[in-house]
Design goal:
This protein is of the alpha/beta class. It is built from 14 helices and 13 strands. Helix content is 38%, strand content 12%. Bound molecules: pyridoxal-5'-phosphate (PLP).
C-alpha cells in the first residue's frame, strides 16, 4: 500500500507545473529530504551567482561608488519586488532590519498614533519573538498599557468570535501572525481587519510564514501594517533582512521610534536635527546588509515567475497529501495532526504530534537524512516549499519517519535539547 502512495507522488510530480523550479536551487545531496524550507529556504543558483558578482564587482571594484550605483535605493527597490508578491503598491514596502526590529518600529509608531487607546492584542499561538516585542512595547509605553493574549481554541486554531469579543474601543493595535508558526493555522485577514477597523484599532500582520507560500493582497484587504522575513519561503539566505509594509495613507502619520540617518529627510545634509523623510523611507534606520539584500533580490524572481496562484495550488496539494500519509502511515504509530484539518485554513507546513517527537526528530536528522524541525512540546514540523519540494520527497519523508518509529531507532537519542531545534 505504501507503494501506491509512492506511485501517486511520482504522478503528482510529473504533472506539477512548478517542477522546473527545483533545478534553480543548489541541491548537493539528492537523497536528503529537506522539510525545513519554512525555517531556512534553500540557496538558489541565482543568489549564489549574484553574491559572487556583488563581492567581485560592486564591492571589490566599485567600492564606495556602488552606493550610488544601486545600493542606496536597494531597500525600496527590493521592497517593491516583495510588494508584487503581497499585493502592495510601489512605495509601500521596505526591506530593512529583522522582523523583530521592524515589528517593534511599527508597533511603537502605531501606539503613539493611537492616543488614548492602551490595549495591545495578540494570541497565544504567536511566535515568541513577536510576543516578546509586544511585551517590551507595553513596558516601554508604561502604565496603563496592557497586552491581552487571546487564547486559541486548542493550540491549533483561533475562534474568531473570541478574538472579536476581545477587541473594543480601548484597543490600540492587534498584532498577529498570518500563519501560526507551530500549527500552520491561516488567519482570514479580511475578517480580522473588518472587526478591528470597526472598533478603530490598527492591525499589524506578521507574514513570515505566508510570504512566498500563501497569496496575500495587502492593499486589496485594507491592511494597515505588516512585517515579514525573507529567509523562509523567499530564500533570501540566513539572516537576510526583513520587510515592512505601511499603507500609503498612514505613512506620513506614523513616525518610527528609531531615528536613523537613512530615514532622515535629507541624510546628506548631515543636519543636527532629525526630520523624518516623506513616505515609507522614514522607516529606515541605518546601513542595510547589502550582500544579503542582493542575494534576496535575485531569489525573488523565482516566486514572481512561478506566480502565487500556482504556488498556493501546489502548497495545498502538498499539505493535503501529507495529511493523508499521516492518517494512513503514522496515525497507527501514535502520531496526530497538530494543524487545521482543512487545507484552506493552513499555510505550507503541518505539525505532527508524538510524545517522543524530540528524539524522533534527532534520529531523522542523525541517521535518516530527513530534516524537519522540532517545536516544543511535541511537534514535528514539516515544511513544504512549493518551488523545490517534491511529492516523492514528502512520501520518502513519511516513510522514513515510519521506519524510525517502527524500528524504535529514536530510543538511542536522548531528550537533551540542542541549541537550535
Ligand atoms: C521566523 C519568524 C520571525 C523571525 O524574526 P527575526 O527577527 O527575523 O529573526 C518572526 N516572526 C515569525 C512569526 C516568524 O515565523
Amino acid at each position: 500500500m505504501n507503494f501506491d502512495y509512492r506511485f501517486e507522488a511520482q504522478n503528482l510530480d510529473q504533472s506539477d507545473p512548478l517542477a522546473r523550479f527545483r533545478s534553480e536551487f543548489v541541491i548537493t545531496e539528492p537523497d536528503l529530504i529537506y522539510l525545513d524550507g519554512n525555517s531556512l529556504g534553500r540557496l538558489s543558483l541565482r543568489s549564489a551567482r549574484r553574491i559572487q558578482e556583488v563581492v567581485d564587482k560592486e564591492w571589490g571594484e566599485g567600492l564606495v561608488r556602488s552606493w550610488s550605483a544601486g545600493w542606496w535605493e536597494a531597500p525600496a527597490r527590493v521592497g517593491n519586488k516583495i510588494g508584487k508578491l503581497i499585493g502592495a503598491s510601489e512605495g509601500e514596502v521596505l526591506v530593512t532590519d529583522s522582523t523583530s526590529v521592524d515589528l517593534f518600529k511599527l508597533l511603537m509608531a502605531a501606539l503613539s498614533y493611537q492616543q488614548g487607546r492602551t490595549v495591545l492584542i495578540s494570541d497565544d499561538m504567536n511566535f515568541p519573538s513577536d510576543l516578546y516585542i509586544l511585551q517590551g512595547c507595553t513596558k516601554l509605553m508604561g502604565d496603563p498599557y496592557t497586552l491581552h493574549l487571546v487564547p486559541s481554541t486548542d493550540g491549533i486554531s483561533m475562534d474568531l468570535d473570541r478574538l472579536e469579543n476581545a477587541i473594543d474601543s480601548r484597543t490600540a493595535v492587534v498584532s498577529l501572525s498570518h500563519v501560526a508558526f507551530k500549527s500552520g493555522y491561516l488567519y482570514d485577514i479580511q475578517r480580522v481587519i473588518e472587526m478591528a477597523h470597526k472598533a478603530g484599532a490598527l492591525v499589524v500582520w506578521d507574514l513570515c510564514h505566508s510570504v512566498g507560500a500563501v497569496p496575500v493582497d495587502l492593499d486589496g484587504w485594507g491592511v494597515d501594517l505588516a512585517v515579514g522575513c525573507t529567509y523562509k519561503y523567499l530564500n533570501g539566505g540566513p539572516g537576510s533582512p526583513a520587510f515592512l509594509y505601511v499603507r500609503k495613507d498612514l505613512q506620513d502619520r506614523l513616525v518610527s521610534p528609531i531615528w536613523g540617518w537613512f530615514g532622515q529627510k535629507t541624510p546628506f545634509d548631515f543636519e543636527v536635527d532629525y526630520t523624518p523623510a516623506n513616505g515609507i523611507q522614514r522607516f529606515l534606520g541605518g546601513s542595510p546588509p547589502i550582500l544579503s539584500m542582493m542575494a534576496l533580490e535575485a531569489a525573488l524572481d523565482l516566486p514572481l515567475e512561478a506566480g502565487m496562484t500556482a504556488i498556493r495550488n501546489k502548497s495545498e496539494a502538498m499539505t493535503a497529501f501529507a495529511v493523508r500519509l499521516l492518517d494512513q502511515i503514522l496515525t497507527p504509530l501514535g502520531f496526530s495532526l497538530g494543524s487545521p484539518a482543512s487545507p484552506e485554513r493552513r499555510g505550507s507546513h503541518i505539525s505532527i504530534c508524538h510524545p517522543d517527537a524530540y528524539p524522533i526528530n534527532r534520529a531523522l536528522i542523525g541517521e535518516m537524512k530527513v530534516i524537519p524541525d522540532f517545536r516544543a512540546p511535541d511537534n514535528l514540523r514539516l515544511g513544504f516549499a512549493p518551488l523545490y519540494t517534491t511529492f516523492e520527497e514528502i512520501w520518502q519523508g513519511f516513510d522514513r519517519i515510519r521506519k524510525v518509529v517502527e524500528e524504535q531507532r529514536y530510543l538511542s537519542y536522548g531528550s537533551e535539547r540542542a541549541v537550535v531545534t
